[in-house]
Amino acid sequence: MQFNQATDYAFRTALHLAQLPPDSVVNGQTLAAKEAIPPRFLLKIMRSLIQAGLVRSYRGVEGGFGLARPSDEISLLDIVIAMEGPIAIHRCLADRQACNKHCCQECPVHATLGRLQETFVDGLRDMTLTKLIEQQRITREVIPS
After folding, report:
1. Dihedral pair phi/psi, residue 67, rounded to 5°
2. Cα 59 to Cα 73: distance, rounded to the nearest angstrom
3. What is the pTM of this model?
4. Over the chain (145 residues), what is each successive 10-residue block's mean pLDDT?
């Protein structure tokens, strides 16, 4: 399993916005340049994040983008779901009817993948933008640049 490029850009964009003072707005050109994201691709990403209620768009000369919620309320899981949809590491975890063996009960593979998926999803849910910023701050203190 691998997140697509749009999700990687969405992580970087959301983290950038989270590092700004509360209620800050940054224009798309600045955001694209600072995060090395093609401007047209950034707009596509922002549409998904806006639809998910993670980012807010502001119009006008002073317009741009800002977080729609506090950074401690936005998790990596929120971003992944906004960009890629619900996580299902195997088709039978998303749809029980997808099993071509038509198991009445869970097979050992299904049960194991289900536990692994739950752990993965819990880890993404637990990691908020605020926690990422704190980790980055600690890393910079330990390993000065």
Report:
1. -65, 145
2. 24
3. 0.86
4. 92 96 92 95 96 95 92 97 89 65 69 88 96 86 69
CATH code of 89's domain: 1.10.10.10
Q: How far apart are CA 18 and CA 130, in angstroms?
A: 7
pLDDT at site 112: 84
What's the domain count of the chain?
1
User: The domain containing residue 109 runs over which residues?
Assistant: 5-142
